[in-house]
Amino acid sequence: MCISGGYEAPLLSAEGICAGYGRSRVLFDLSFAVAPGQIVGILGRNGAGKTTLLQTLMGEISLTAGRIHFSGQDFTSLDSAERAKLGLGYVPQDAPVFLRLSVQENLLAGALNSGTVDEVESVLELFPKLRARLGQAAGTLSGGERKMLGICRALLGRPKLLMLDEPTEGVWIGVVEEIAERLAELATRMAILIVEQNLGLALRVAQHVAVMDRGHFALSGKPAEIQSHPQFLRLLAP
User: Fold this and answer.
1) From which residue to which does the signal peptide run (predicted)?
2) Per-residue confidence at 113, pLDDT binned at 50, 70, 90?
């Protein structure tokens, strides 16, 4: 099944990708595309292959078959660092922050990798709560604040496509709404690929949604189409 959403000139396209861990295959012949400015939501029960998909796109897991193109370039054989330099950003489920460093030090460390130290202030405008925590150790932040910090660090890499794995997991409802609002803002500047268990958020912010099941795309379409499909809830049931 191919996700395209009716967009032309995709920013990222994957063709027949297969991947897994050792001899255990997790992804089976997945093809899809993400266009500039598009938010694509990936849904599915635990173990469906969602995180593996993001790790494969980032280059943390090697393909066993298929090709990946990004921004007009075949980067199937590139490593994670090279993909990041080309504009692929990734915030894992456990946001990558240095727990013993302060919020400010975390941001400066992220900025130094891309030469964007002057842009630290601009990313703080997205999540003003972090400005009041600049001198605080990241390890003392709440779960929601760590998610915000992880997103800000990724943004300092100037991504063309930002991939988010469960950005609202374990986050207070007020912060969930704040993140949802920021995603809509970010989509005016970049594409977003989001794996999310919060169905309400995913169906609200995404223009296109795919449901994974056992390493395949079982459903794909616009949120309203997916939500009304008779198999939708069955595919998400534990």
Assistant:
1) none
2) low
